[in-house]
Amino acid sequence: MKNIPEIKLGIISVSRDCFPITLSARRRNAVARAYAEKYGDIYECPITVENERDAVAAVDDVLDNDVNALVVFLGNFGPEAPETQIAELFGGPVMYAAAAEEDIAVLSSDRGDAYCGMLNCSYNLGLRNIKAYIPSYPVGTAAEVADMIADFVPVARALEGIANLKIISYGPRPRDFFACNAPIKPLYDLGVEIEENSELDLLVAYKKHANDSRIPAKVEEMAAELGEGNKMAGILPRLAQFELTLLDIAEENRGSREYVAFANKCWPAFQTEFGFVPCYVNSRLTAMGIPVSCEVDIYGALSEYIGLCVSGEPVTLLDINNTVPADLYEADIRGRFPYQHKETFMGFHCGNTPICRLKSGTMKYQLIMHQGLEPDKEPDITRGTLEGDILPGPITFFRLQGNAEGSLQAYIAQGEVLPVSTHSFGGIGVFAIPQMHRFYRHVLIEKQYPHHGAVAFGHWGKALFSVFDYLGLEDISINQPASLPYPTENPFD
After folding, report:
1. pLDDT at 175
2. Of 21, 210, 325, 348, whose CB is crowded by the most CB atoms within 10 A?
3. Residues of the chain with pLDDT under 70
4. What does the radius of gyration of the chain's CA atoms come to, in whole angstroms?
5. Distance (Å, whole) CA 277 – CA 361
6. In this predicted model, what pLDDT tens digit does every residue of 249-299 receive, in sequence order?
7. Distances from the Cα of 167 to the Cα of 68, 102, 163, 188, 285, angstroms
8. What pLDDT sits at residue 1?
9. What is the pLDDT of residue 179?
């Protein structure tokens, strides 16, 4: 099941009718060539838009050629109304950029003035209440605009995915984790479909898959993936049955939507009724591109899906969990890495991180649940976690959240997983984020974020910020540098 969009780019040039139309067409062609040489295919619309009828014809042309992300390029000053009507007519992710003057020779007779035209374009977008992706400096040479388009692709992929996403949830949110409560209205504002079900529905579906003929092959697949980490092979048939259940639900219940994510109940009754911990299955589906969040965290699932679309690679969902002990910091971090003790923390979850993101993934049992559910026996119903230290490297910790008032907010913080042993259980890593202690207090606590955060592997803050901005979020927080106080920060502290 392909679960993220494939972006097909198109470019339309626009031209003010008192400027040479050939100038805009020639510059569009140079951008398309530059993009194709460095990045790949882009459909070049042959219609240069000067008026409203041109706009209709050009949009029809790109839609007929399966374009789902569009670049509107001001090769000269551009026609203010028609160039913004393009975005209205297209309906999908749209980027605007403008041409820089190539050299001294064009200044005497072939100047385009797109630097000026971009200002009026932005004003007209505002008049029409149109959201568009505009690069941080949207005027450039053909090669520079090609680079801007490359930055637009992950943003467009996320926007297109969100617009065609259904989140399927099972079970009420655990009362002890009520911070994951999800007001539904903002999801509809984003265009996301939500289908909430009882965990009894999931149990019924699971039982219907008993003796499914596909289970043995799925068990073999899991065993091959785990390799030497297959420490509890006896639980694999149950996990295989559950994975097939979720895959079938995803295919059968997506309805009118192309893409699916899950937000599922995973404790405390889950273990006694299903007979296992679902973490490993959640990790496998997430690696396949179908995020499955823990504890019915609907906005966690949405955040994971956005990270998947932006990065194009498996993500995870972790608790911002515990401090790094002072002795561990002194032994393994101080002097080796440029972080204060308070800038480090441990990101953890029971075992939902894909095996490709772990140093050595091992099938284990959930230690805390075992202590409560079957303390005096060998692990049985608490088996099913995938455990190991998370691979070191750059990460982006982020979350899109519907808050208690029903409005949307988000945070983004770039950092890294340190190559430091955690000496702990679960899927876990030692994280470092610059100025984390201030970010923790003045964003996460101040703005009442829950403990779950999505993790994209790599630094994806630029694209994520653009996605959230395009979606119209007015509150996007980052980990601010020491030189930039938060509004609520005590200046005497």
Report:
1. 67
2. 348
3. 1, 174-181
4. 25
5. 16
6. 999 999 999 999 999 988 888 999 999 999 999 999 999 999 999 889 999
7. 22, 48, 12, 11, 14
8. 63
9. 56
Asked if residues 74 and 145 have their Cβ atoms less than 8 Å apart, the reply is no
- Residues 307/396, Cβ–Cβ less than 8 Å: yes
pLDDT of residue 181: 66
Structural domains in the chain plus CATH codes: 9-160 (3.40.50.10940), 164-478 (no CATH)
Residue 19: what pLDDT? 87
CB atoms within 10 A of CB 349: 25
Cα-based torsion angle of the residue sequence 74, 152, 6, 31 in order, rounded to the nearest 10 degrees: 40
Per-residue tokens: 428: 């876990």
φ, ψ of residue 198 to 5 degrees: the values are -80, 150
